[in-house]
Amino acid sequence: MDSRIVWWMVVGLWASGACAQEVPRQFVIDGEAAQKIHDFRTINLATAERITETCQRMAVGEQVRHSIMVLDLQGAPVYFDRMDGQGYLNTFTAEMKARTALLTGQPSKRAMNSVIADPALEFENMQLGLYSNSGGLPILVNGQMIGAIGVGGTPPQLPRWSDEICAYRAMREVLGDSVPPLIEDVPPRSGPTPAIALVPRFAPTAPPRASLPAEFVVNAAAAALILDGNQLSLAAAKQVARTCRGWVAAKRAGMSIYVLNAFGELVHMERMDGQTAIDVRAALLKAQSALKLRQPTSIRAAQFSNNPGGQPVSSVWFDFFTDPGGIPIVIDGQMIGAVGVSGSGGAGDEACAMEGLKATFGSHAALPVYP
Length: 371
Hints:
- 41% of the residues lie in helices and 14% in strands.
- The chain is built from 13 helices and eight strands.
- It has helices spanning 3-11, 31-37, 45-62, 88-104, 108-117, 121-127, 163-175, 220-226, 234-250, 277-293, 297-306, 311-316, 349-361; strands spanning 67-71, 77-82, 136-141, 144-152, 256-261, 266-271, 326-331, 334-342.
- Residues 1-18 have low confidence and may be disordered.
C-alpha cells in the first residue's frame, strides 16, 4: 500500500479516541437558520466570534499579534479578524491553515511534521491543497467537527506560545474539556547547507504619519510594522460590522459582511447564521468592486439598470460585481478601505453598510446620497 495512504490512515485515528456525542446547541447553527441552509452541525457566528476574540485577548497578554480565520464545515468563512500590524501573508496563512485542518480533519501540524520527516512530501501536500505549517485546528466538540480555525501572524516561542497554542487555548476556554490535546512538535530538520546570502535590512527613516483621526486607524506601533499610518483599524472595522449586524437583526434578517483595507486585504469578516456560501461570496465581491471602482456599487447598478449595454464589459473584462451593498470607506476625503454586505434581502444591503459607516465614522465618512 502507498506510504502516503498509510500515513493518512494512521493520523486519522487522532480524533477517534471516543465516539462522537451530541454537540451542545449553543455552539452550532440551530432553528430556522439551520433549516434554511439544511445544516444543524456547523459552527455558529457566536461561537466563532468568542473563539476568535478569546485568542486575541490572549495574544494581547503575550504582546503578539495574530490573524484568525474560522471556517464552517463547507469551507465558507464564518468569522475573521486581523489584528492591527498584520500584513497580507498573515491573512493568507491563517486561511490556508484553517483549510488544511478542514480538509484533513487533523491539525495542520500533521502536514508540517510529515514534511519535516520527508521534505519530498511538501509538493504532494501542495497539490492536495494542504499548507504545511502549524496553526490550523479542526474545531471539535464531543468528537464532532463543527468547523476549523487557522491562526497566523507570529513566530513560535515554544513551548510558551505559538499560533496553534493561541487557537487551542481559546477553544478550550470556549468549548470546554472535550477539545483534544495538541500533538507533539517534531524538531525542525537542519538545513543541508549553511546560509551564505547576505540578508538586507529594510527600515524606514521615520515612522509613518497619520492624517486621519486616531480612533479610525492603526496606532503608531502597528503602523510602523506595515509602513502605513492611515490603515483601517480592526476596532473600526468591527464596529462597522457589528452595527450592521444589529441593524439587520432588528429587521429579522441576516447578512454577510467583508471589511477590506485600501490594498484589498481582509481586516474583518463575519457571516450571520443562516447565510449561504453565495451570500458570503457576494459580500466579498461587492467590497472588492467598491474598492476598485472607488465608488458604491449601487452607482453602477443604477447605471446598468438605465442602460444595460455596458454590463457585459464591466462584468467580464473588469470583474466588477455591481449589486448594491459595496461602499468604499472614504474618511475626510481619504479612501482607507471598503465594505461589502450581502444577504439581507428586503432589509437592504447598502442601507446596512451605511448604518455601520455612520455609526463608526460619523460625518467623516462619505456616503451615497440619492436625489
